[in-house]
Amino acid sequence: MINLELPKKLRASANQAHQVASQIFRPISRKYDLGEHEYPVELDTMAAMVDGLSDSGTQKISGASGGRSDDEAPTTDVLLNANGGNMSALLNALETSWGDVGLMLSIPYQGLGNAAIAAVATDEQLERFGKVWASMAITEPSFGSDSAAVTTTAVLDGDEWVLNGEKIFVTAGQRSTHIVVWASVDRKLGRAAIKSFVVPRDAPGLSVARLEHKLGIKASDTAVLLLQDCRIPKDNILGSPEVNVEKGFAGVMQTFDNTRPMVAAMAIGVTRAALEELRAILTDAGIEISYDTPVNNQHAAAAEFLRMEADYESAYLLALRAAWMADNKKPNSLEASMSKAKAGRTGTDVTLKSVELAGAVGYSQRLLLEKWGRDSKILDIFEGTQQIQQLIVARRVLGKTSAELK
C-alpha cells in the first residue's frame, strides 16, 4: 500500500511556511497588489528568518537543491527514499503561494536562479553562491518559449567573461543580489554552446532598463536587464565551460527539472486558496458538497467544485512525484513537465471558474479571488508555456527528438 502522508519533518516545515503565508502574506496581499513596484518591507523579516534557518541547517527554504542532500540516502535502489531539498522547497513554495504568489517570488534567497545554481553548479560554486538571492534571466525580445534561441553572448577575455545582450521578464530582476544569465559562448555551435553565468548585481555593464507593469503577481518586480560589455570573473560560469556538442542543450536544461515542479507548486498553492474560498462561499449559500452523492444528483456548482478539486489533487500528486524523483537522483524531465502542465492549466481553470461561481463578489476586490485569477495566468506561462510542456511530454512518451517533433 502506498503511503502518501508527508513525513513528520516535512509537515513541520510546511506548517511554518503556512503560518508565514497566513500571518504575513495574506494581510498585505491587496496592499502590494495595488502598490505595484513598491518594495514589501515586511519581507526584511523573512530575509532574517531564511538566513537563520539556513545557518542552523534546520530547514531548506532557499530553493530546490538539484538532488543534493545533506542526509545520506539509503544505499540500495529498493529502499532509496530520500525527501530532501527539492521536496522541502516545493512544499514551502506551495504554502507561501497560498498566501500570495507575488510575495513568495519576492522572498530573499528564494529566487528561481537559486534552483538553477543548485542544478548546474559545481560543489565549489554551490559553496560560494549558497547564500545569494539569484533571479534567472533567459527570455529575450527575439524569443519567448524557445530557450535555445538565446542571442546574448559571452566572450572570454583573460580572466573575465564579457556578456552582451538584453533580457526581459526577469522575475526579481531589480531586487535580487545576483542574476543567472543564459548566454552563448559560441553562436556557431548552436544550443550546445549556451551556458549559465552568475552575474553579481554590481557587475560593471549590468543595468535595469525598466520594470514591467503586469496583469498579476504585482508584488514581484519584473525587470528588463541590459548587459553591455558586462564583466564577471572567469569562474562564474556554472558547471563546465567546455562545449559538448553531443550532450547538446542538456546541461543548462537541467535547471528546468528543478524549477518546473517549483512553479507547479506555486500554481497548486493558488489553486488551493481559491478552492477554500469558493467552498466557504458555496456553504454560506446553502449549497452542500457531498462526497457520497453522485455528482449528477448534486447542485451544478457543487459538481463543478468536485471536478476542480479532483484536478487539484492530481496536480499536487504529480508535483510531489517530480520533486521526490529529483531528491532521489532519478531523471525527472518528463515528470517535471507533466506537473508544470497540469498545475498551470488547473490553476487558471480553478481560479477563473471560482470567480465565475462566486458571482459579483468574486469579480469585486472585496475578496482576493479576482487577484488569484490574475496571478494564476503567469504560472501557466513562465518556465515554459502549457504548449511547450505538452510538446516535451509528447517527445518523451513517443521517444522523439526536438528535431523530429516540433
TrEMBL record:
Domain named Acyl-CoA oxidase/dehydrogenase middle: residues: 135-230
UniProt-listed SUPFAM superfamilies: Acyl-CoA dehydrogenase C-terminal domain-like, Acyl-CoA dehydrogenase NM domain-like
Keyword set, alphabetical order: FAD, Flavoprotein, Oxidoreductase
Biological process annotations from GO: butyrate catabolic process; fatty acid beta-oxidation using acyl-CoA dehydrogenase
Molecular function GO labels: acyl-CoA dehydrogenase activity; flavin adenine dinucleotide binding
Gene3D superfamilies reported for this sequence: Acyl-CoA dehydrogenase/oxidase, N-terminal domain, Butyryl-CoA Dehydrogenase, subunit A, domain 2, Butyryl-CoA Dehydrogenase, subunit A, domain 3
Cofactors named for this entry: FAD
Domain of life: Bacteria
Family membership: Belongs to the acyl-CoA dehydrogenase family.
Protein's recorded name: Acyl-CoA dehydrogenase
Protein species of origin: Nocardia jinanensis
